[in-house]
Amino acid sequence: MNRTAVGHTMLCRLDRATSVVLEGGPDRAPFLGGRGYGVALVATLGSPRLEALHASQPFVLAAGPLTGTSAPSSGRFAAVAPSPLTGTIFDGNAGGRFGVRLRQAGVDALVLTGAAAEWSVVVVDGRGARADGGPPSVRLLPLSEVWPEADPRDPGLVWSRTVAGLRAALGSGYSLLLPSVAGRRGALLGSLRTDDGRNLGRGGLGAALAAKRVFAVAVAGDRALYVAEPDHFSFLVYEAEKQICANPVTSRALPEFGTAVLMQLVHQAGALPALNYTTTTWPGVERISGESVRDGLAVGRKGCFGCRIRCTPRVAAPSGRDGSGSGEGDHPPGGTGPEYETLWALGAAVGVDDLDAIQEANRLCGEYGLDTISTGATIACAMELSEEGLLGRDLRFGAAERVVQLVREMGEGRGFGAELADGSARFALAYGHPEAAMHVKGLELPAYDPRGMHGQGLAYATSNRGACHLRGNMLGPEILGIPKMLDRFSTAGKSGILLNLQHLSAAFDSVALCKFAGFAFGEEVLARLMSAATGEPLAAQDLLRAGERIWNLERLWNLGAGFSRADDTLPHRVLHTPLPDGPAAGRTFDLTPMLNEYYRARGWDEDGVVGLEKAAALGLEGYRAALLPAPAPAGAEWGDAAPGDVTSTTAGSAAGSADAAPHGAGNAPGDAGNGAREEEPKGGGRHLRAVP
Amino acid sequence: MRARKSRREEGVIYEQFRDIGRDCFIAGLVSSHAGNMSVKVGDRLVITRRGSMLGRLRPEDLIETGIHMDDSGIALASSEIVVHRAVYGRTAAQAIIHVHPPHGIALSLEQDEIIPIDSEGSYLFHRVPVVSAERTVGSDEMAEVISSALVEYKLCMLRGHGLFATGHLLEEAYQWASAFEASARVAYLVRAGGIRPVEYRKESERYQEW
Predict the structure, then answer these.
(1) Mutate to test the interface with A, among B168, B174, B205, B206 (most CBs of A within 10 A)
(2) How many CB pairs under 8 A join A and B?
(3) In terms of Cα–Cα distance, which of A428, A419, A508, A405 is closest to A689?
(4) Which of A613, A689, B11, B191 has the fewest CB atoms within 10 Å, counting from its CB?
(5) For A589, phi and psi rounded to 5 degrees?
(6) pLDDT tens digits along B111-133
(7) Which residue from A541, A544, A596 is facing B3, i.e. has the nearest CB?
(8) Domain ranges, residue B132
(9) Model pTM?
């Protein structure tokens, strides 16, 4: 048997309905796996100069070297693709069992290119352990054959019905990942969800996968996962779990309240942005707090594979307003309750303190496949415009039933909700008031107001996937005191702390463990777990260096897509409008000096460009040469490149392999000749800039 | 043209140095004019002045200079700046503390690694490496061996000299230094008292593999 911790990278050409083992692609080790390896694959096989939904852009699913092992909270995997919502490179990350199944099927990464001729199911089957550790079968099955009764255009074919139907059609043993109604019809807030109810919510990844006419990805596998030094690994897992048990965040707060424990803490800090970021004092906060969720909504907890934290509230069976959502995978009837960001987006952001209504909206987001953060934030934007008399319709903050109705309309693409389903930036722009959209790079801000947490503001502005709290979360040092409590209104030294957190975050996403374990232990433990799992020595600083490499490669992609310093900004309101009340009353946010310091700390130039010397130090010079275009001729703009501007990668050979040499080894990115759709895809790569 | 840090930022940094420097002296981690500290700010570092008193730091005792290149500030900087630069160059540390913890130094004279026997030290460190250098003050050799050790560990002892601890924040580096000396003191007392400790930690024999 092939005793290696490394699985296969499978390339599935959807337009040709063929699959091969990708040979000669980027090395996995410098990028760890998961998110990092996915980014390297997208950067190698795709092009930032093409539209995000161009058929030739790759869509990657990748597990990490620790996925599915006994390491704590190790059931993670990543999806990486250009985002139709933001135009940036984008990754989503989720737990559950799907990532574990990928590894059990012998797959480190599954790369999907082209677009299928008709709606299809990608079926990966690695069952029946092969003596040589060979690749699994990867087949593209037309949906019309797998499940003839299914109509992808049916807005009633929601997530739970899809899961039930595919399970009946495919048989047992498969883990599923699927876009739902919103993604299938191309809504840019369309998310991905696993059959056990784990979401890759942000960035329109559901729309990206559905644009390839992939109805679902099904994975089955039963291979034992190899760990190089099992005895030592077991000792390290024991030590890591000791640290989880010793930390009150991971041993008490998250298991008891879930992430909703943050509601009161962030509010007390004056950083809970309510009513579309117009105030941080909002009287309804106690009614949607962690305590209220625990006492009034949750009936238990739910955890991902291998997780002892179990942060997700489990709720009773839904109210049955539409009869859907009767079960989630292997879990009891009912569903998952709202986590903090969802409580904020469908609660405080829109002025709703009715927990049942929030949960119903949350459930509908899951059923239709909508990102809860962006959904709530976009409705909040519309509410503000309405209250200002700029919308021509009556939509008020606090209208709980209206929120539920709008979520349904957003999912189904009808009524006024259809105007909201592509996010706040496009919606507000269409109504002539882009300043009302609280976004960075087209992605809606989450539940922390930078005026009350200055480090978090820098995190939003510099995140490679747009405003995001998971790409270097200053929640630890500014609210929870992890590793130490910082003055949240200070800017001093924040850039250095943030970039370390950004690197550590990239490392967690890539190895791949849940970031919540990072509240208990950091790079030192993580590097030791990696070393013992792979048998390849990795020091703590090597791990952070890999995180830095991933971050810089993402930046290079975004620079190639036309992003610049001007996009590393925050909404006008955050920069210039003082908060009216609360602990942060009177504060705005002074980004420029922080951004200058951040760029210097990164070794970028003053425009935020990764120079050749920096790229070379990280081993990215080949990527830099391929991703950053030569100076454009006068009059041309970034993103003008046509599909014909890129060359094709080597086609798969009869022996079942395809070559895709990484940048620097001679090939150019992209593969435009395989069934690209003729029409201009919605969303595309045109990025939207926050109004500074 | 480098933008000046605001008065508020400068004040925050000074207060951190002042408070932690005073605590280091009061805790007995340094003698009157020993030890040094630094933080990384963008592509610069702020380090204590050569010969400054950690227990009585004044704003003018903080010297800002380049992480990679000298400027005139180098004339005033701590003689250990070569070590600080090497550590910043090879690690993601944002802060460094160098102190002379007596019990840690005593143990370093005999051992190549210090394995804590108390609960907190075990939890935080598992193992602290001891490195040696012929020239133990401000040498390139010292910078090399210490920065090498700190690629894998957050703190290390230079035999016969003192402790270098790193952190994402100055406070965090100070925590490691303080907790380490407390742990070393327990180990020293147990040894000096002839106490034969009862093992209470599962798999503690494996801490040497850490």
Answers:
(1) B168
(2) 96
(3) A428
(4) A613
(5) -140, 125
(6) 999 999 999 999 999 999 999 99
(7) A596
(8) 7-195
(9) 0.89
